[in-house]
Amino acid sequence: MNKKDIMIGAIVAVIVIIGAIYFLYPKQEQPGKYDSFAQCLTEKGAAMYGAYWCNHCAAQKEMFGKSFKYINYVECDARGENAKPELCEQAGITGYPTWIINGETYKGVQQLETLASITNCTI
Question: Which of 28, 37, 62, 99 could form a disulfide with 106 if both were Cys (CB 3.0 to 4.6 A apart)?
Fold first, then answer.
């Protein structure tokens, strides 16, 4: 082996190590655009009732993006993940999505501005 081959091997090894470090170490997740707003809604007792198959629920979730994880969401279909159909029945939920905030019921997709107005949370 000559010096050129050793040098090329070393460069390739460094590139492989840097690539492995990049892919193996998790990247820090950036906060969602509406994290503080979603957390405020939950702190104020707001809850969204829905079903996994509901297109309107999906649209409501999409409005929050990855910040939806902070929303107090109740899955009403027994086949859904973490389903609590008994809570939906107790709350008198008849359609999806339904928000219950301060004892008041709001049916259908709600604009973020509407939720902010009802709860005094800042978007």
Answer: 99
